[in-house]
Amino acid sequence: MALAQEFPPQSTEDDFWIGANKLMAHGNWSWADGTSLDFTDWKRGEPQNITGSDCVALSIGEGYWSANDCFKNKSYVCAVPITTPVPTLPPFTNCSEGYTYFQPTHSCYGTVFGRKTNFTTAEKYCESVGAQLPSIHSYEEDHFLRG
């Protein structure tokens, strides 16, 4: 199940914050957890070199990333890495309510609806619940998030 499918049917959401930004890496794109962008799925023509467009949103409809003004209010996803060993049988299902487990990353992902906020506030909220904005390192993870 793709995480984007969890947006309410009446939702007008079209994109949400992920953890990529160039706020701390001297103008270079990196993930909020400090890792480099070893996988990208930029929309054609992105990232544009526009002042203030230093944070990345993933488009549900188009399925691509775009650089955005970090002060725009958007929904967001929080990711919680699972640090305990994951049993192979039965399938792991111990994510907190509202989170969905994705086996390839051993992480639980939860979308935050109705609380659109800027990038920094989204990042702080995720941290307050023991999570982080997601760092996407593969096509499979990207596809899981966008649907």
UniProtKB/TrEMBL annotation:
Coiled-coil region: none
InterPro entries attached to this UniProt entry: C-type_lectin-like, C-type_lectin-like/link_sf, C-type_lectin/snaclec_domain, CTDL_fold
Q: Which Gene3D superfamilies match?
A: Mannose-Binding Protein A, subunit A
Superkingdom of this protein's organism: Eukaryota
Residues covered by the C-type lectin domain = 16-79
Q: Which PROSITE patterns match?
A: C_TYPE_LECTIN_2
Q: Which PANTHER family match?
A: MANNOSE, PHOSPHOLIPASE, LECTIN RECEPTOR RELATED (PTHR22803)
Name of the featured protein: C-type lectin domain-containing protein
Q: In which organism is this protein found?
A: Panagrolaimus davidi
